[in-house]
Amino acid sequence: MSSLGATQGGFRVSALFDGRDRRTVGQLPRRIRRFAARIEAKPSGIGHFPALVFLMATVAYGVIAGGHVQELSNAALVAAGLGIHEIKMTGEAETSEREILDQLQVKNVSLLTYDPIAARDRLAKLPWITHATVRKLYPNKLSVEVEERQPYALWQNGGAISIIDRNGLKIMDFDGRPHAGLPFLVGPEANLEAGPFRETLDDFPSIAERTKAAVLVAGRRWDLVLDNGITVKLPETGIEQAMAQLVKLQEDHQLLSRDIVIVDLRLPDRVAVRLPQGRDIKDLEKQNPNVKPYKLARAH
């Protein structure tokens, strides 16, 4: 909850005129200048009332010509205690209070003349906000409710990293914490496949929690980069079956705990692995002589 003071004790009419307005006063309509000339021609002591009328007309003309009518009415209403003194915000998590206040534009504004629709539209332009509601609570309060987009993944395309939502739409550029733990997707159009792919990956939590990045290859299939540096090549179709096979290999043979570089699951009838340079498939089997890997072949 934020409070804004409206403590202007009053205003001076002269303060409403800038340099442009003073020139405007010098360019009064001809009928006013003629009226002023008649006042000057009257004997001393006779033209006080006409002079006062002329002064009031001049001030009114300057205020209107200078576009200060709204300012004048706001100042009067704020001085009467109808300024905006308190703002109640709900729903903001990713958007800062400062950002919301900047868009509300409530400084020296009366609640009576405040436009909540315009404020709502300004808030909706902020990157995280999808919908906003602004209500006036008389005599001096505003209620602001916002709905925000939910961060779903990080997407790297070229050298740029963005935060995207469930639909793959960019929310904003990635600026570090607190979103560093989001799933990391790489490649052109990887954002468009973010929702379905992450849902599939989340069905296999033992693999999902070890996945540091998912790379969309040629717009057709995914490679997983695990936390120990192993790359898992998934097929174009039948991803669920390939993932289930990987989970079983890890449970039964601790495949992902071995000294390998790539696990290739693109072929449905076998699993191919790539070893570090200088290693052989027999070396992999010797790591656990009691468990023979199932249909392992060297990946090329």
Please explain how this structure is put together.
It is a single chain. By secondary structure, the protein is an alpha/beta fold. The protein folds into three domains: 79 residues, no CATH class; 66 residues, Ubiquitin-like (UB roll); 146 residues, 3-Layer(aba) Sandwich (Rossmann fold), CATH 3.40.50. The chain is built from ten helices and 14 strands. It has a ten-stranded mixed β-sheet, with no helix packed on it. Strands 1-2-4-3 form a four-stranded mixed β-sheet. Helix 1 crosses helix 3. The N terminus is likely disordered. It is found in: Cell inner membrane; Membrane.
User: Helix- and strand-based class?
Assistant: alpha/beta
Strand content: 15-25%
Overall 3D shape: rod-shaped
Estimated helix fraction: 25-40%
How do the strands of the widest beta sheet line up side by side? 7-6-5-8-9-10-11-12-13-14
Q: Could you say what the CATH architecture of the largest domain is?
A: 3-Layer(aba) Sandwich
Gap from first CA to last CA: 62 Å
* Tally of domains: 3
Mean pLDDT: 78
CATH class annotation of the largest domain: Alpha Beta
For the sheet with most strands, the description reads: 10 strands, mixed
Order of helices and strands: EHHHHEHHEEEEEEHHEEEHEEHE
Poorly predicted runs: 1-26, 290-294
> How many helices does DSSP assign?
10
The CATH superfamily of the largest domain is known as Cell division protein FtsQ/DivIB
How many whole angstroms does the radius of gyration measure? 35 Å
Number of strands: 14
Looking at CATH, which topology of the largest domain would you report? Rossmann fold
Subcellular location: Cell inner membrane; Membrane
GO cellular component, one term: cell division site
Function: Essential cell division protein.
Family: Belongs to the FtsQ/DivIB family. FtsQ subfamily.
